[in-house]
Design brief:
Radius of gyration: 23 Å
Order of helices and strands: EEEEEEEEEEEEEEEEEEEE
CATH topology: Porin
Number of helices: 0
Number of strands: 20
Structural class: mainly beta
Largest sheet: 20 strands, antiparallel
CATH architecture: Beta Barrel
Number of domains: 1
Distance between the termini: 22 Å
Strand content: over 45%
Shape: globular
């Protein structure tokens, strides 16, 4: 059977894939080889190794004009090759997977609804611990959209986020060492007013509760985390200054109030100031440079609250319709308060090239540098370099 690549009209947005009646299927597999100079993210005795990742995935899309639906799933296998006789088998992953869906109904109607739930299990990204830390989680955002006019939208939002961090001393176990079991419930309102053809006035806020589910103390490697109430509000502008310049400027404020018996300091006063700013330039339609700043807060099992401050630069360009080049640099400052109390400085930089040999075959190469507090040798501080080369066979 011959399959043709389906292209939806530009008014809907182009969809590449395999046509299945009114749906578009997006099967594929990504394979990549990795060289990492510091697999343990260790400050004193870094160990390098070669690794291999295989990630099959499948997606299906219904690309309607007023109703859009998508369903995606992936599985990732990863292993190191134990370079130099070092044993890195504990980094082997056979439980890295995810399933997600997206619904956007009434996109052109007076009343609309959107949601994008997902369920996943993935290795932790911080690189600390014994190397077997994983996260089992779910995210369920919900939104109702009211559009009395074409230029004005009011959204009623809600979300539930769940994350269970755990150590798995073997590849698969029904009795993991639980580190944290976090639930976030929040709801809020958002306003988007298009007061010029390409300019928007934005106002949104949320109020919520972070809770920590019960864990078996005999199998817990961390102290109990503290529940808290939180809120944040944002106000700002988003739009094009000219056809080549665009701006996002949001100022915000938020507080976190821990329960009375908690020993963690509340987030309030000047520390509650939040922000999102990005200035982007398009010298030509296929090139984009952006410089930005953001500040917000989050929660994690290893500390009760984190203040995240980031400054970054990003570049992406398309050449000859087939070659995509990317570069990014960021500085991150994290203030941790709780079970772990400390400040972290992190610098990251990366460069990548992607060649589209065919619509269903891409070749990628990339390099990434990361350093956390590299001037000392405290636990959790490291310098890491990673080079990756791979290909994707399938539709993106």
């Amino acid at each position: 059977m011959a399959f043709a690549v389906l292209s939806i009209r530009p008014a809907i947005a182009s969809e590449s894939g395999l046509p299945l009646g009114p749906f578009v299927a997006k099967p594929g597999v990504s394979v990549s080889a990795l060289f990492d100079t510091n697999v343990y993210r260790d400050a004193v005795s870094p160990e390098p190794d070669f690794g291999l990742s295989v990630r099959p995935y499948f997606g299906v899309v219904y690309p309607g004009e007023d109703f859009r639906f998508s369903l995606n799933a992936y599985y990732r296998f990863f292993t190191y090759f134990n370079l130099g006789g070092k044993n890195h088998d504990l980094f082997r992953r056979v439980t890295d997977f995810g399933v997600g869906a997206s619904v956007d109904a009434g996109k052109r109607s007076k009343v609309g609804f959107s949601t994008s739930p997902e369920f996943f299990n993935a290795p932790a990204t911080r690189g600390f611990g014994d190397g077997t830390e994983q996260n089992l989680g779910a995210n369920v955002p919900l939104a109702l959209h009211f559009r009395p006019t074409r230029a004005f939208q009011l959204s009623v939002n809600g979300r539930w986020n769940w994350n269970r961090a755990y150590f798995s001393p073997v590849l698969v176990t029904l009795s993991p060492i639980q580190l944290g079991n976090r639930h976030e419930l929040a709801g809020g309102l958002g306003v988007d007013w298009k007061f010029f053809p390409r300019s928007h006035l934005l106002l949104n806020g949320e109020f919520g509760r972070v809770m920590w589910g019960r864990v078996d103390s005999a199998q817990t490697a961390a102290v109990a985390q503290d529940p808290a109430w939180f809120w944040r509000v944002w106000f700002g502008l988003k739009g094009d200054i000219t056809r080549k310049l665009s701006l996002l400027a949001m100022i915000g404020y938020g507080n976190v109030y821990f329960d009375e018996e908690s020993g963690t300091t509340d987030l309030s006063g000047p520390a509650g100031l939040l922000g999102k700013v990005e200035f982007a330039v398009r010298p030509v339609t296929t090139q984009r440079l952006a410089i930005g700043f953001s500040r917000d807060y989050a929660f994690a099992y290893y500390t009760n609250r984190i203040e995240n401050t980031q400054a970054y630069f990003k570049y992406q360009g398309l050449f000859f319709q087939r070659l995509t080049a990317k570069f990014d640099f960021s500085w991150n400052f994290r203030n941790l308060e709780g079970f772990t109390t400390r400040n972290e400085h992190q610098w990251t930089a990366g460069v990548g090239l992607e060649i589209m040999a065919a619509e269903f075959f891409h070749v990628e190469v990339g390099y990434r540098f990361s350093a956390v507090n590299p001037s000392s040798t405290d636990t959790g501080e490291y310098i890491d370099n990673a080079v990756q080369l791979g290909f994707t066979l399938g539709f993106k």
